[in-house]
Amino acid sequence: MPLHKLEHFDPNYRETFGGDDIKALDVYTKAEERVGSVADVLVDDDSHFRYLIIETSLDFASKKILLPIGLSRINYPARRAYIDGLSKQEVESLPEYKEDAIVDQDYEENVRHVFRSPSNALTYNRDTYNYQQDPDLYGLNDQSDQTFRLYEERLIANKHRIKTGEVTVGKHIETETVRLAVPIQKERVLIERVTPTEAGKVVDPNELKFQEGEVARIEVYEETPEIHKEAFVREEVRIKKVVERDTVEAQDTIRREELDVDTAGNLNVQENATTTHEVI
User: How many domains does the chain have?
Assistant: First the structure.
């Protein structure tokens, strides 16, 4: 069965694993000694992790090694991968993995031979071999820190404010000619000659006084209009925004993963309310 690098097998693997990126994990031994980081993962056609490609950063040399996935313990919250069965010195002695290497069945068997327990007297047959024959190297069921995650999709609604237009309110000046009638008064002098009431009465010569140059003065006035302009507030304009509320409905198809439990043999599998599966 051919093997694929993780990103070649699933370009969206980060989304598949809910944002967890195994390629960003540091690698430690059980003694809390850092020996490198996960550079990549080799995956088979059935979506099973088979090997971690570890970029080692040791005291004397740096190299890449292939580690069967069953020898690792992944702790995503701690952002770490542990190699519990190997010491730092044993990691240093592992054979180097070349990026241009063709990982075929024979290459894998050479890798397995390095890690396989001497007590496992497995006779390798290229045509009949399967990974279940090496549960210590590829089995993840007994790893206490491994989790199998079920994902579901949800519709998430977000709101964005977008500009749909604008209103500009300004002022301009209009002119018009206004006629205003202003009543005014003018004085004029009217001279009348009338018959005296005592006409024909003889005046006593002793009372008669002739005066030359005697004049009478009367001041004459007239009104002139005085017109000027004053500005008054004619009206006020208030500008405000009113928020109108509406509900927009959206619909889409979402997916959810459900757990399938397959058993072999005469087993009684029970599932309790907390979704813990018990095999009896």
Answer: 1
CB atoms closer than 10 angstroms to residue 232 = 4
| DSSP assigned state of 60 | S
Distance of CA 35 to the CA centre of its chain: 37
Report, as an integer, the average pLDDT of 156-163: 83
Question: Among all chains, which residue has been given the structure tokens 């004619």?
Answer: 234
CATH number at residue 72: 3.90.50.10
Convert the pLDDT of each residue in 72-117 to its tens digit.
888 888 889 998 788 888 888 888 999 888 889 889 988 888 888 7
Whole-number pLDDT of residue 279: 45
Q: Which of 32, 23, 34 is nearest to 58 (CA)?
A: 34
Helix ranges restricted to H, the chain: 6-9, 13-16, 88-92, 105-115, 135-138
Sign of CA dihedral 191, 195, 196, 199: positive
Per this entry, what is the length of the chain?
Answer: 280
Q: How far is CA 220 from CA 3, 187, 189, in A?
A: 124, 5, 7
**Domain extent for 128:** 3-156
Please, how many CA atoms are within 13 Å of residue 206, restricted to the half-sphere of its CB? 0
The identity of residue 83, as a single letter, is I
Say if 184 falls within a structural domain: no
